[in-house]
Write a structure and sequence with these properties.
With 372 residues, the chain is of the alpha/beta class. The protein is built from 13 helices and 14 strands.
Length: 372
């Protein structure tokens, strides 16, 4: 089967920086059995091509990106016809996928991987924020041959819009991020916490930091590593300093997987503070490394709580602080959650993801042949 995969980015030629590990893992697995071409919208500002994970990456670049991406897919289709066009994320990738699919007469699949269906006005976030965005998403999603998403909250959001979707989590590549059994915490040292996310509005690090301030006031001994690109130009670091957390919180910036793994293994808890997530991959990676998560009730945390994680309402720093403190006081519960999270994350790994998508490709291809 010949597959056109449309992504906004995450497929840098270094295979280490500016990448999305779950997307790279999917590409590598699909490429073992299929002819895959990846159309990255703006991995780099200028158009370019390179090979990665067994596939050809065609970077579209800035300037009329949607039109040029559709044109590029159609051009490559004339060279060797595609059987399906698959977008990871809706928005522009989804629009490109369904437009190309309609032009070429092939099925289109959209995997919702971000905030395409939500509107959070106070931080100007979400595909449903404006009427143009709502109309674009409604038309794009209804035009797709099939829809998928990483977690049930997103599937339920689709259902409320009269759309059906399949749950397909983007799993962890266990060959590169191997499973590790949970380790009992040493109570004689400060608790080790970790937060892995870009510093931006939707990840809501202010809620995280206020929860950490409350932990400090309550006498909990801890250290926190925050890993991720800073898109807010020092705003989060300044808030940490104003809350008296400079000695407890370390901002690591972006780290490649080989540098991130030791920090995750050293942690006792992953902490998530996002206002919206469809996954996210960070808690799956933590689970595979034997580390449970406490965080807001979004994505997989909504699905996993209370057996495999602890979730609290988004934006509720006081509740988050109590949940973290409670987990650090109850080692048997922390280990129980970690074991169940590990089991779930390993069961739905990168191989599972690729198998689910390939089964869906085959189903769509059969339907296309019957219609033809």
């Amino acid at each position: 089967m010949r597959i056109a995969l449309v992504v906004p980015g995450g497929v840098d030629r270094t295979a280490e920086y500016r990448v999305i590990p779950a997307v790279i893992a999917l590409i590598a697995r699909l490429s073992r059995a299929h002819d895959v071409e990846v159309f990255a919208l703006r991995q780099e500002e200028l158009a370019g091509e390179w090979d990665l994970a067994g596939a050809r990456i065609r970077n579209i670049g800035a300037g009329q990106t949607v039109v040029r991406a559709v044109r590029s897919i159609c051009t490559q289709h004339r060279v060797r016809p595609f059987d399906i066009v698959h977008a990871i994320w809706s928005g522009h990738p989804g629009l490109i996928a369904v437009t190309s699919g309609k032009i070429l007469g092939i099925p289109s699949l959209i995997h919702i991987a971000g905030g395409e269906l939500v509107s959070i006005p106070d931080i100007a976030y979400g595909g449903a924020l404006t009427w143009r965005g709502r109309v674009r998403e409604a038309c794009t999603l209804r035009a797709a041959s099939a829809l998928t998403a990483a977690s049930m909250p997103v599937i339920e959001a689709l259902s409320k819009r009269g759309l059906s979707g399949l749950r397909v989590p983007l799993g962890v590549d266990l060959t590169k991020w191997p499973a590790r059994d949970p380790v009992r915490r040493d109570p004689t040292r400060p608790a080790r916490l970790i937060h892995v996310a870009s510093l931006n509005r939707v990840k809501d690090q202010p809620t995280l930091l206020r929860a950490l301030e409350a932990l400090t006031r309550s006498g909990v001994s801890f250290e926190m590593d925050i890993v991720g690109d800073d898109t807010l130009h020092g705003e989060v670091q300044a808030l940490a300093a104003s809350l008296g957390l400079s000695e407890r919180v370390r901002f690591r910036g972006f780290l490649p997987q080989r540098e991130l793994r030791p920090l995750v293994e050293a942690a006792d808890l992953m902490v998530l503070s996002s206002r919206h997530e469809t996954g996210p991959l960070a808690i799956l990676e933590a689970a595979v490394a034997g580390v449970p998560t406490v965080g807001t009730a979004v994505g997989h945390l909504h699905e996993w709580s209370p057996r495999a994680a602890v979730s609290v309402p988004a934006g509720d720093w006081a509740h988050l602080a109590r949940a973290i403190g409670g987990m650090l006081e109850d080692e048997e519960r922390r280990l129980s959650l970690a074991r169940e999270a590990l089991r779930r994350a390993v069961r739905e790994d990168a191989d599972y993801t690729a198998d689910r998508f390939q089964a869906l490709y085959a189903s769509l291809a059969r339907s296309q042949r019957r219609r033809a």
